[in-house]
Amino acid sequence: AAPIALDRIRKQYPDGTVAVTELSLEVEAGELMVLIGPSGCGKSTVLRMINRLIEPSGGRILLGGEDVTGADPVALRRRIGYVIQNVGLFPHQTIRTNVGTVPRLLGWSKDRIRKRSDELLELVGLDPGKFAGRYPHELSGGQRQRVGVARALAADPVVLLMDEPFSAVDPIVRTRLQEEFLRLQAEVRKTIVMVTHDLDEAVRLGDRIAVLSQGGRLEQYASPAKLLGE
Ligand code: ADP
Ligand code: ADP
Q: What are the phi and psi torsion angles at 211 (to 5°)?
């Protein structure tokens, strides 16, 4: 079964806004799937339904073939890494403690958390000897973004969700982060859903691109080459 399958999911917010009308999609193992579309077309809503920050109004979400639509959201989030635009690091915790957030929830030992945090900082290109003991405000935007990726990968989630992960940094840093992220993904091979509104980014990073229009309607779902008509 596909690591992620959306089966006719819908979302209507309490105020009546229909953000997603009816969306079906499958993401394959190790694939980086990009959700792209204009502002307000429901991209973030789709991601937030997958990790159940919000409840779908209808349809099913399957992870590895298992219907998780009624599952405990907290347990679910341990299987799903989540990276957002402004990272949301805890300002009064060190970088190491931030990276260890989910492992701590899972009750890992201190030693194991420390080892894992350092390994991940290394993986995202931050020397743990230099950065592990720092606080978020002592890092650049690009570095904080890498910490966000490290934190999302900490408990080795099955699935990684990324909402505009590189859009809060300047264009030069963004390009570098994208390149580094591609190298990282070649190593870790996560199943990823990434939201962006940037076509260049979608084409550069995506194995497949889902183009949405208003109301979360799926217009196209294809490889970048196919989408660009090559
Ligand atoms: P995108 O990520 O593509 O910009 P969103 O998923 O954030 O789009 O929003 C989709 C639609 O749902 C928009 O019309 C937005 O205004 C609306 N929306 C988002 N969150 C809420 C909410 N909590 N309550 C009501 N409407 C919302
Ligand atoms: P990036 O290109 O990754 O965004 P910057 O050019 O913004 O990085 O930062 C350059 C260097 O300055 C980095 O090594 C970073 O660790 C360091 N730095 C930035 N802000 C601070 C700070 N407040 N305290 C200590 N070092 C900092």
A: -95, 120
